[in-house]
Amino acid sequence: MDASEREALVARFRAYLERAPAAGEPAAEAASGTAADAEQREAPDLFTLLAELAALKNDVRLESRQFKSALDQLSATCETLRTQSQELQEDLQRERRRAEAASEEADQDLLRELLELRDRMAAGCSQAAGHRPGLLARLGRTRRYLARMAEGMEMNLRHLDEILARRGVQAQETVYRPFDPQAMHAVETTEEPGMPDGTVVREVRTGYLRNGRVLRTAEVIVNKRGSET
Q: In whole angstroms, what is the distance from residue 27 CA to residue 21 CA?
């Protein structure tokens, strides 16, 4: 039974109720009118009406079940989509973390190479600044040339330090501090009576941190009481 049939059935039932005579109303008055009006006002059979109402009730119940089944299927589909979306987000986050880790490792390798270059530049700068030319060299232009070369190397060294600082790289402070095996490597021990045991006495190679994490371990000499010097 489609919607139009149900609407027609409801309209017929409403008309029947409106045409039913009130209690105590004379039969003659209820039956008055022309023959055409009597034919239009003819009430449907009560059994047929009840049967049609039962069929209407069954149709409504069936459609309700179909609607509930469709709603359950829609809920299951939404839950599946939600689960798939969550899994996709987790996969994307894992890939993003993996890419960030690979990029971080590549950056650290490059920064370590820059630190090796800085060590060589600093050593060359110290040699140029501490070089003392002989008498003949002082009479010529060698002294001025070495001074200009040392000045240029110092400028390049400062520029490299600025580049490293912008990337979060900073030198460790190790001297006169307790030895930290996570950030330092002891290449030698010595005995300094006036210093606590396990304290860094000298630094052989500077260590560096990047954003608070060890980028390159420092090579240090550690005080150890009773050691052979």
A: 8
Identify the CATH number of the domain in which residue 204 sits: 2.30.22.10
181 lies in a domain?
yes
Strand partners of residue 178: 199
For 182, the domain range is 170-229
Question: What is the radius of gyration, based on Cα positions, of the chain?
Answer: 49
Residue 144 resides in a domain? no
**How do residues 79-129 score in pLDDT, each as one tens digit?**
888 888 888 888 888 888 888 777 777 788 889 999 999 998 888 887 776
The pLDDT tens digits of the residues spanning 45-81 come to 676 777 777 778 888 888 888 888 888 888 888 888 8
In a domain, residue 99? The reply is no
**pLDDT band, very low/low/confident/very high, at 223 (cuts 50, 70, 90):** very high
Q: How far is CA 110 from CA 2, 104, 207, 221, in A?
A: 76, 10, 16, 27
Q: How far apart are CA 62 and CA 66, in angstroms?
A: 6
Which pTM value belongs to this model? 0.52
The structural domain count of the chain equals 2
Domain boundary among 28, 58, 87: 87
Sequence-distant (≥ 6) Cβ neighbours of residue 108 within 8 angstroms: 210, 215
Among residues 21, 52, 87, the one where a domain terminates is 87
Indicate the burial class of 65 (C-beta count within 10 angstroms; 0-12, 13-18, 19 or more): exposed
Q: In degrees rounded to 5, what are phi and psi of residue 32?
A: -70, 160
